[in-house]
Amino acid sequence: MSGYFRKTFAKIAASTAVVMAVALPAAPAAADESPDQRPDVAVGTWLAARTQPAVQLTSFSYTGTVAVPTSTINENAFQQLTQQAVIAVQNGKIASDERSIAKWLFQRIAANVDAYLVETTPERTVEAEVGGMCTGWWVTPDGYMVTGAHCVQVGDTELNQLFAQQALAKFNEQDAKEIIKGLQGIEADEEMVKLAQQIYITFNSTHMRLRGLKQSLSVLQSLPGGGVDKTAKAVPAELVSVGESYPGKDFALLKVNGQQNLPTVPLGEDADVRTGDTLYISGFPGLVTNTPFFSLESKLEPALTEGPYNAKRSTQTGVPYIQTQAPSYHGNSGGPVFSKDGKVIGMLIAGTVSEGGEASESESFVLPVSIIKEKLGEKNIKAAQATTTTRYNEALNDYFRNYYEDALPKFREVQALFPNHPYVAKYISESQTAITAGKDESPKPMMMWVLLGGGALVLLVLGLVLARVLTRRKRPAVSYGPPAQPAYNAVPSPPWQQHQLPAGSGPGQHVNGHDHQYGSGPQYGSGPQYGPQHDPQYGSGPQYGPGPQQGSGPQYGPGPQYGSDPQYGPGPQYGSDPQYGSGPQYGSGPQYGPGGQYGQQGHYGQQGQYDQYGQPGQHPADPTRDVRYGQFAPPPDGHQQ
Question: Where do the TM regions start and end (predicted)?
C-alpha cells in the first residue's frame, strides 16, 4: 500500500505541473518592459515626456570692449549742403520755415553720413556682452551635445550688428540730442528726432571697434534637487566641432565635462519618415525665453510643436534639407526633430522670416539625421543611451498605464543615477499621490498568481485522491454463501472457488465483450501457490485440476498490477495532452474504457451497464458480478499484492 501512495503522490505532482502550465498564460500580464512601446496615450504626450529631459537650453555669448570715436561736422561739406537748401527753398521744393529746412538737411546727412561727419577725439568705450539662445540635446550620457553651427558662432558682420545694438544705444541717444541742440531754438518733432538718431546709429556702428573679444558657450542645467527651478545655472561647454551655417551643413558638437548618466534621445534614420508623416519639433522659442512674464522654471521646459513633412529639398551645394509645416521660432534652432516613434530624424536649422521679422510657419527647414551621423562619425562619437534613459522610459510607460507602484521604484532609481534630472521628482510625487488615492492598477507579480493557482490545484487533486482512497478502503464485503463441508482428508475450497464462473469466462476469454480487469492473462496463474504441485496449504491432490485454473501467467497477469500499462494507462495521468488534451482523460488503459472519459459507448463503457470502475454492473440473476476489482475478489489469506 505504501508503494501505491508513493505512485499516487508522484502523479499528483506531475498532474499539478501540467495543469499549472496550461493555466499560467491566463494570469494577468506583467507590466511592459519595453521602453519603446507606447502606452495608450497621445503620441505628443508620450513623446514630450520621454524627450524633454535630454533637450536643453543653450547659450553663446561674446564679451569685449566697444570703442566709438566722437564725431564732428565736416564744415565744408555742410556749407555746400546749406547752399543747396537755400536754392531748394527759392525754387519752392521745400517750405521756407526753419523746421522744414532742418528736416531736409537731416535727410540728406542720413543718406550719406560719412560725407558730413568725421571722427574726432575723445574715443568713448564701454564693456559689452552679446549673445543668443538656442536648443541643444544630449547624444551620449557623458556630455556630448548636438546643436546648430549658427548657435555657437556668428560672422563678423553679424557680430558687429549685435554689439552695436547692445552697446551703442546710449551713445546714439546722446549724439542725437547734441545735433538737435545745435538747431538753436527750433523745436524738434518726432520725425526730426528719429532722423537725428538714424544719423548716429549709422556713424557709430560703422566706426565702432571691438577689443578683447571673448567667446563662451554654456548649457543651462538645474542644480541637484531633481527639478528645474531658480537654482538652474549655466554650465560651461567646449566646442568640439562646427560646420557651416545654413544653407551649409549647419551642425555643431559640444562637450560638457564631468557628466555621467545624462538622459539622451536615440537617433533614427532618414528613411523613418517621408512626405505626409507628422514631425515633432522640440525646443525653446525665443518668444518665451526672452519675455519677462514667465518664470525661469517655465522658460526651461521645451515646447513641442508638430506638423507634416512637406517635401525634401536640396541646396545648390547639394546639402539636403526637409521642409516641414511644424511651427518653429527664433530659439528653436538646433532642436531635435522626432518621428512618431520617438527617434531623432533631423535637427531644426532655419525658417523663413517675413518682412516684419516674423517667422513664417510651414517653412521650417530640418537638417536630416544622416548629416548628423556623418558629423558625429568624423569625431568618432557614437550616440549611446544610459540606464537613466532606459529606466525613465520604462517608468513612464508604467506611469501612463496607471501602474504607479511599478513605476515608483524605477523613478527613484533614475533620481539616484542622475540627481539633476529635471522632471523625475515631479513624477515621484505624482506616483505617490496616486497610490495613496487608490488609483494604482499595477498587475500582481506572476509568481503570486502561480502560487495561488498552483495551491488551489494541489488542494483539489489531494481532495479527490483522498476521497478515492477512502472509498476503496470502505468497499462492501463480497458474500459467498454458506461454505460446503469438505470431504475427509481434503482441503476446504477457497471462497472464490465456491462461485461458478460465468459462461465463457475461462482463460483468455471475455465477459460481455471485455477482458478481465487485471489483464488479458488469467487472474491466478499456475505457479506453486495455486498450481498442481504439492502445496502444503491446500493438499497434494489436484484441487484445481491439472491445468491452470485461471491462467498460466503470474498471480495478477503478466502485466503490472492493473493491466499491461501503468496504473492508468500508458499516457500521462490525465491524458497525452496537458490538462484535458486530445488523449483519453484517464489514459487508454482498461480501467475506464479505451476512449473518452468513461469509454466510447454507453454510460460507463462500450456496451451494457457497468459499475463505477468500468466492469459489468450488478445483475440480479448473477451475484458473481458484484465484484469490485473484476470477476473475483482478492484472496482473503493475505496474498494480495
Answer: 446-467
> Which of 209, 49, 246 has the alpha carbon at shortest distance from 134?
246
Distance, CA of 185 to chain centre: 76
CA dihedral sign of residues 573, 579, 582, 586: positive
Identity of residue 342:
G
Q: Where are the alpha helices (DSSP H) in 168-323?
A: 169-181, 190-207, 286-289, 296-299
Phi/psi for 236 (5° steps) reads -60, 145
Joined together, the cell numbers standing for residue 2 give 505504501
Cα dist from 327 to 56, 267, 469, whole Å: 19, 22, 79
- 197 phi/psi in degrees, rounded to 5: -65, -40
Helix and strand numbers, DSSP H then E, in the chain: 15, 12
Q: What gap in Å lies between CA 290 and CA 331, rounded to an integer?
A: 9
What pTM was computed for the model?
0.63
C-alpha cell at 393: 522610459
Type of residue at 109? I
Whole-number Cα distances in Å, 389 to 86, 91, 232: 77, 79, 21
Among 139, 369, 365, which residue's Cα sits nearest to residue 273?
369
Identify the burial level of 435 via C-beta atoms within 10 angstroms of its C-beta, where 0-12 means exposed, 13-18 middle and 19 or more buried: middle
User: Cα–Cα distance between 335 and 219 in angstroms, integer?
Assistant: 13
Buried b / exposed e along 137-170 (16+ C-beta atoms within 10 A): bbbbbebbbbbbbbbbbbeeeebbebbbeebbee
Estimate the crossing angle of helix 387-400 against helix 424-436, to 10 degrees. 30
Which pairs from 74-79 meet CB under 8 Å and 24+ separation?
74/115, 74/116, 74/117, 74/118, 77/115, 77/116, 78/116
φ/ψ of 429, rounded to 5, equals -65, -45
Using alpha carbons, list the distances in angstroms from residue 460 to 19, 56, 456, 568, 612.
12, 61, 6, 19, 21
pLDDT tens track for 283-306: 999 888 888 888 877 788 899 999
Q: Are 604 and 593 in contact (CB under 8 A)?
A: yes
Residue 294 C-alpha cell reads as: 514667465
Q: Which three cell numbers stand for residue 107?
A: 535727410
Q: Across-strand partners of 119?
A: 71
Q: Are strands 278-283 and 344-353 parallel, antiparallel or unpaired?
A: unpaired
Q: With CA atoms as reference, report the closest residue to 133 among 335, 314, 315, 321.
A: 335
Cα(573)–Cα(592) distance, integer angstroms: 13
Q: How many residues does the chain have?
A: 641
Least trusted range by pLDDT, from 2-11, 100-109, 214-223, 267-276: 2-11
CB 302 within 8 A of CB 350: no
pLDDT, one tens digit per residue, over 78-135 is: 999 999 999 999 999 999 998 899 999 999 999 999 999 999 999 999 999 999 999 9
Q: Is 283 helix (H, G, I), strand (E, B) or coil?
A: strand
Structural contact between residues 326 and 304, judged by C-beta atoms closer than 8 angstroms: no
